[in-house]
Write a structure and sequence with these properties.
mainly alpha, Arc Repressor Mutant, subunit A
Length: 92
């Protein structure tokens, strides 16, 4: 996983978002992988549940996670969050 640094100037929410994003981009977390539950992550890292909710919501908004009701959060398949490509040409 990754570690959080409460003394770092980057807010904890952003550290969580960056940590998961980096794991997904590197392939360490593969599409379909289940993220730790919000409570489990909060307890393991000593942060507020609200901080983790905010981070997971941001990851959903950015297209890295998908939320499945009563099941949790999962890494979205790569084609679902493909970043815009520079070789597509002009957009009209």
């Amino acid at each position: 996983m990754f570690t959080l640094d409460p003394q770092h100037p980057t807010p904890l929410v952003q550290q969580i978002v960056d940590g998961f994003r980096d794991l997904i981009r590197s392939g360490a977390l593969r599409p379909g992988a289940k993220a730790p539950s919000i409570r489990q992550f909060a307890h393991a890292h000593g942060v507020s549940v609200y901080t983790v909710v905010d981070a997971y919501d941001r990851l959903v908004a950015l297209g890295y996670f998908v939320s499945r009701p009563h099941s949790g959060f999962f890494v979205r398949s790569r084609d679902s969050h493909a970043e815009p490509s520079a070789d597509r040409g002009p957009q009209y």
